[in-house]
Amino acid sequence: MLLKDMLECYSPTGYESELVDFLIKWANKNGLKAYRDNVGNFIAKKGKGKEILMVSHVDTVPGKIPVRIEGNKLFGRGAVDAKGPLACFLESSLKVSKGKIIIVGAVDEEGDSKGANNILNKFNPKYIIVGEPSGWSNINIGYKGRLNIFYTYKTIKEHISSPNLNCYEETIEFYNKIKNYCIKFNSGKKLFEQLGIKIVSINTNNDDFEDKITMQINLRIPLGFEIQDINKFIEDNKKDAIVSYSSYEEAVKVNKNNILVSTFIGAIRSAGGVPKFKLKMGTSDMNILKRYMVPILTYGPGNSTLDHKPNEHINLDDYAKSVNVLKNVLEKIQEKNESIH
């Protein structure tokens, strides 16, 4: 079983090579032309004509989960996020005889998306399908943007009775100000329109003369948000702290009125499903690949509520349905391309 073999290759971010090696051998053995690109991405191609680019990711968050099948459930790290969708892409591509398909297993999606950024302007796709768990009968059409804030504060050690705020108290005060900013912004807005905030990590350190604290805050950014507003608020309230930022990823939301979306709707209905559209509170490589300016959406088997969890698993019946849906989409898209030509 392809997916089970993929799960046996433990591939947390930065350690994807074993899985990429396996996939290259598997793909070349099964009639695809496969290779590793200059940043470590898995690339597989087949066919001729207008390109359909299919991008999932080979890396996972850390944490080994024993690979096993219980009933119709396959357990393992990445079963849902996102080796399941990538395996689905590969299996469905083998069932299609016409058209040009490019499949990418990107590295570093759980990190800084080095893999997705590296394939920008490398291909000429007519359509893009991103592989993330949507559930076999659903389509992900939107993701929030992302900004990470890295905060460091140091203070001279004082007696515990001092009325001055120490660095730990200053940090709590700083976070609460940003949290209240978000609460005020979010008032009356739907969840996808809200500014999300989460503390990723807090670390403290001290010696005989100094206290120090570092904190990472993750912001999930809605469509149309003016990022300079929150940047200015942070700069105005950081006091003597040192603050830096990650690269900013803008939110994305797909226009439903395009051939790719309508083709998925038809394929899901033909398989007996009732298609639903989902807006996700996280980010994905879709946020980056939208820059190709072609029809794009995200699809794949799996329940996204299991992402990163210790009981991550995929329903094998739903996986099989997703392979069938995707096969029909690829065939129908190619038929439409030929009729337009």
Q: Could you please describe the fold and organization of this structure?
A:
The structure is a single chain. 32% of the residues lie in helices and 28% in strands. The protein is α/β, with parallel strands linked by helices. The protein has 2 domains: 2-143 and 251-340, Zn peptidases (Aminopeptidase, 3-Layer(aba) Sandwich), CATH 3.40.630; 145-245, 2-Layer Sandwich (Alpha-Beta Plaits). Helix 1 (2-8) runs antiparallel to helix 3 (83-94). The longest helix has 25 residues, at 316-340. It is elongated. The mean pLDDT is 95.
Report the CATH architecture of the largest domain. 3-Layer(aba) Sandwich
Shape, please? elongated
Count of separate DSSP helical elements: 9
Portion of residues in helices? 25-40%
Report the radius of gyration as a whole number of Å: 22 Å
In short:
32% of the residues lie in helices and 28% in strands. It is an alpha/beta fold. The strands form four sheets. It has a six-stranded mixed beta sheet.
List the topology elements.
Elements: H1 2-8, H2 17-29, E1 33-36, E2 42-46, E3 51-57, E4 68-70, E5 73-75, H3 83-94, E6 100-106, H4 114-118, E7 125-131, E8 138-143, E9 145-156, H5 167-186, E10 196-206, E11 210-221, H6 227-237, E12 242-245, E13 252-253, H7 259-270, E14 276-280, H8 286-289, E15 296-299, E16 313-315, H9 316-340
Parallel strand pairs: 3-6, 3-7, 7-15, 8-14
Antiparallel strand pairs: 1-2, 2-6, 4-5, 5-16, 8-13, 9-11, 9-12, 10-11
